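Notebook entry, structure prediction.
Reason for the run: the old model in the group folder had no record of what sequence produced it. Starting over properly, with the input documented here first.
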Amino acid sequence: MDWLLDPLQFGFITRALIAAVLVGIVCSTLGTYVVLRGMAFFGDALAHTILPGVVIAFLLGWPLAVGALITGVLTALGIGVLTDQGELKEDTAIGIIFVGMFALGIALLSTSGNYTIDLAHFLFGNLLGVSTTDLWVMLGLGTAVLLTVYLFYKEFLLISFDPILAATLRLPASFYRYLLLVLIAVTIVTALQVVGIALALAMFITPAATASLLTRRLPSMMGIAAGIGAFSGIAGLYLSFYMNIASGAAVVLVATLIFLIVFTFAPGRGWVW
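New structure, fully documented this time:
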């Protein structure tokens, strides 16, 4: 048991564990909608488009989450507006904003004195550097996301799987679509410190995709995905501690390994069947 308890004597490890579990649960829960609605490309683009906001906050000495949150929400709403007009296909609008915003972020980052190190920090996270303040911010954002998913569960379910019924019931589908986009942006900000911009999408997609191979029911899928996400955070952190590898990458690698195992051996649906 020493190998399990020894890392916990360090305060930064304890904070990192809490952060990893929190991010694993929040990302994986919301990620079920991302997977089932086929929004993986949107999630990837949004994860990268918050880079300018992060860099501006860094250069101004603001908390990174503030810049990321503002940019993420504005970008999500902007993509929604562009695609609602019908002039551009969704993937085209996302692609244009994706590359433009990411290039802007890199250009801004290049103006700072420590380009390489800072870029690596933004892209791949700094789980072991999570502070108590970071934890409170992540807890607040994560709670807001989970509470919103709980309150609007039926509405999200209808617009995702039965838009005709949603229209019959006169649900404001556009409002709930925008709300879902904003939730994705907020969740990416929550994951920023743990796995970084480049790996945030993996925590959305991989646990949820794994859960989709094990169950057909959305509540069960959310629960399983959250469990996988939390376990990946814990196991990845221990892997990082003992093997001296990047913590964010270790978390994602554990989640990916679980997916490959389930994809191969899932009862009745795995590759071996």
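Summary: The CA atoms of residues 90 and 186 lie 20 Å apart.
The old model has been moved to the deprecated folder.
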